[in-house]
Amino acid sequence: MKINNIHLSYYVNNTLKEISSNFLESIENDDIKFMPEVSKVDKGYILNIKLKNKKEITLENFLIDYTLDLKNKNMLVNGYQSWSESMEMNKNGELKPLSSIVKGRMEPYGDYLFYKYKGQKGVFHSHTFTYFRNSKEQDQHILFLGSCDEKSGYTIFEGNLKNNKLIIMKDCRGFLIDGEKSILKLYIEEGEEKTIWKKYCSFFKGNREAVSMCTGWTSWYNYYTKISQDIVLENLENIKKENIPLDVFQIDDGYQTAVGDWLSINEKFPLGMNFLAYKIKTFGYKPGIWLTPFICEKDSKIFKEHKEWLVKDDKGKPLAAGWNSEWSGKFYALDFYNLEFRAYLAKVFHTIINIWGYEMLKLDFLYAAALIPRKGKTRGAIMQDAVDFLNDIIGDKLILASGVPLGNAFKKVDYCRIGADVTPYWENSKQKLLKYRERVSTVSSIHSALARFRVNGEVFYNAPDVFMLKKEDNKMNEEQKYSLFILNNLLGGLLALSDDISKYDENEMELFKSMFPKIRADIHYIKNKKDTYEISFNIEDKGYIVLSNLTGSQVKMKLPQGEYFNKKDFVVKGNTNIKLKPYETKCFYKIETEKDFYLVGTTGHLFPVSEINLLEEKEGQINIEINSKFINKGDIYLKILNDDMDIFINGEKYDSILQKGYKVVRYI
């Protein structure tokens, strides 16, 4: 990487001044001291650039312009916040500016207000972190760059794959330098992808206790704001009736009289929110609840009675944070630096946690806290202050963050949305045409889950939004529903649904139950070619390959060498072309054929054989131990050389039949 230019601009007494250099070196003038430091970290290094002021200084812009070889490279493009579409892109892709048709309504959701989209093929920008990978070889060797501190301003990597340019810039406008401050702390390393990601994630520290992966039900994607007390209780009964081992049962938007008035409950919940929390606990689940701490709608009491709590734009008007047809149109950003508003939020969270009894809080639209720089702080600093404030007042209850720039949430929340809202259809074509990257879109949500999978379980558990298996009000076909279901299960740490499971038919119920117990995958690699994906991973000591076709055309994909099991295809040899229908995904268990007896496959779990904890031969019999959280039924296929051996499952003897040359046991 060759430095072409380092540029810093700042204001002193309303006068704009600049510093430029072609070298990474200390610079000092009458206003400021520019101090770069480079420290070695294994095979990589951390670049830390500090400033020390001599006069009162407010930053305007900072960037480093590099030349590096980007020929035949793909670039990871990480979007601005949770919902922003993210993916690995090649020189033929492009990011176009948001359409002027929806600018007024949609701009606040993304980075459109502070980053100028280039709209050229092969020119991309990525927030907080990025990497470059050889597009032809698709190997695991990458050049990685990641910000270790977003408080000094959001870090943006602008890559030009055709002109071999990389610009690293900070959204540092408004940053008041008072003493010695770091403006860029960057980790750079070239090497093996998995190792580098783990190292990068280890740099972040937080005060959240380690939590487990999570499954749950949420009201939003089936009922939206039409939720009621009766609907909640009905779904609670239906899930318990089927003995579904969910962890969390969450009430989403629709319980409050207006967004912002969180302690004012509408008439659809006559017994109050503490009653529902109590009922959820008696059914054995953790109660969860949704709120948006930093916004209010114009019909709320907060907006009408507390204008002093609102963030104001440069004209002194309330700052719009977006527009929502489910609410009263425009909604507005609240100033969490206002002490009265902080006291209000403290009261809200005290009530929700200590009086009502909720144990998980889904905190949404968090980006709104930091729409504009103010009080001598960057957007990134304000966002970090806001997340830290939420940590302080929520304490040890679970936090699911959404609509947040990811870097500010690292090690600060338990679970984090990492993709767009899913929809009961594959793509939102109208919003895609408008170049809106935060659009509600199932395929966009999947793309982001694939792009951001490396942070799952390292800085928080990824929440890739819900899956939908229902038939009613669902335009997705069976392949699309299954792809969303299996990829969310594979890539996510928090899995949820909104379906009324009492309406599931036998096949839908069997598929739903096949996700239990929730698995933790150790992913080796994800290879992407024109929206077809090969994913190699382990579940404990068991190996798997997932082949996924997210396109609208049939494709052929080749399995690696070996012997594999799939529920539909049964036993398949490696180096075989697998036909995938449009939008189809298949999971293959890699059979371990070297033993005298071995598991060929199972049909009850989404990831075959993952429900088997133990397989052993002891005293002339085969013993199989199945995970206690497995709740489905299915067949177990075994290869046994000695046909006389009895088979025991969890201590109980089972009969078997011979089928296709294998022993088959039906486990119910």
Radius of gyration: 26 Å
Structure summary, number of beta strands: 42
Which second-level CATH architecture of the largest domain applies? Alpha-Beta Barrel
Indicate the CATH class of the largest domain.
Alpha Beta
Q: How far from one another are the termini?
A: 60 Å
Main-sheet strand order equals 3-4-5-15-11-10-7-8
Percentage of residues in DSSP E strands: 35-45%
Shape: globular
Note the total helix count: 13
Helix proportion range: 10-25%
Q: Regions with pLDDT < 50 over 5+ consecutive residues?
A: none
Task: State the major sheet.
Answer: 8 strands, antiparallel
CATH topology of the largest domain: TIM Barrel
Structural class: alpha+beta
Keywords: Glycosidase, Hydrolase
Pfam families: Glyco_hydro_31_2nd
InterPro entries: Aldolase_TIM (IPR013785), Alpha-glycosidase_related (IPR050985), GH (IPR017853), Glyco_hydro_31_TIM (IPR000322), Glyco_hydro_36 (IPR002252)
Domain Glycoside hydrolase family 31 TIM barrel: 219-365
Give keywords:
TIM Barrel, Immunoglobulin-like, alpha+beta, eight-stranded parallel sheet, globular, about 675 residues, eight-stranded antiparallel sheet
Concise overview:
With 668 residues, the chain is an alpha+beta fold.
Could you explain the architecture of this structure?
Keywords: Glycosidase, Hydrolase. Belongs to the glycosyl hydrolase 31 family. Residues 219-365 form the Glycoside hydrolase family 31 TIM barrel domain. This is Alpha-galactosidase. By secondary structure, this protein is α+β, with helices and mostly antiparallel strands. The chain folds into 3 domains: 2-202, no CATH class; 214-293 and 338-515, Alpha-Beta Barrel (TIM Barrel), CATH 3.20.20.70; 525-667, Golgi alpha-mannosidase II (Immunoglobulin-like, Sandwich), CATH 2.60.40.1180. Helix content is 18%, strand content 36%. The protein has 13 helices and 42 strands. The strands form 8 sheets. The chain has an 8-stranded antiparallel beta sheet with strand order 3-4-5-15-11-10-7-8. Helix 9 (406-409) links the parallel strand 23 (398-401) and strand 24 (415-417). Helix 11 (442-451) packs parallel to helix 12. It is globular, with a radius of gyration of 26 Å.
